[in-house]
């Protein structure tokens, strides 16, 4: 767990991601809109115990999470949102993600479409797609649909479509939490093309986000980059 001013980053890892290990930067902010902790994204299903251990190391319990912001419907972001809702948290997501969170579509990816971008063997590709297809995903009900422009605990909601239709990022003038609209693996890049709903819009959103006057940019996958 890393503490940066008023935010904390809980780093979880996803082994077996196209031959590598993908990290997940779950952000937690104190004093969420409902008074407890505000969590931004929640990692894959079945990671709730790990999240709880992080929170307990910081003196909190899962029940202290009062608000959960989901940047987009993908399972590595929304995977534990439903469980947290059962414990009392309110769920926030863009209005365009509401239906996808309730009944997510299946990923349709062919090896030939991605082998150059991913540089992955066919075997590793197949095992990753299999694993993702069999995740036990609990559908998520959104309590507070967003349009963009709202302010949650000092963070303005930015609608940055492209990776998905209703992808959002959060910016408080200092910390920029990008979800998958910016990827930080090695360097800051746009999201992977084959996982994006509209790649041209994803490129526009990437340019908009990376030109903001942030001090710290927190991509969900990859490295946190500071301008200190
Ligand atoms: Zn995603
Ligand atoms: Zn992701």
UniProtKB/TrEMBL annotation:
SUPFAM superfamilies: Metallo-hydrolase/oxidoreductase
Record domain Metallo-beta-lactamase: where: 23-221
Database matches in InterPro entries: Metallo-B-lactamas, NDM-1-like, RibonucZ/Hydroxyglut_hydro
GO molecular function, one term: hydrolase activity
The keyword DNA-binding belongs to this UniProt entry's keyword annotation: no
CDD domains membership: yflN-like_MBL-fold
Keyword field: Hydrolase
Highest taxon of source: Archaea
Pfam families, per the entry: Lactamase_B (PF00753)
Record carries keyword NADP: no
PANTHER family reported for this sequence: METALLO-BETA-LACTAMASE DOMAIN-CONTAINING, METALLO-BETA-LACTAMASE DOMAIN-CONTAINING PROTEIN
UniProt-recorded name of the protein: MBL fold metallo-hydrolase
Species for this entry: Metallosphaera prunae
Lineage of the organism: Archaea, Thermoproteota, Thermoprotei, Sulfolobales, Sulfolobaceae
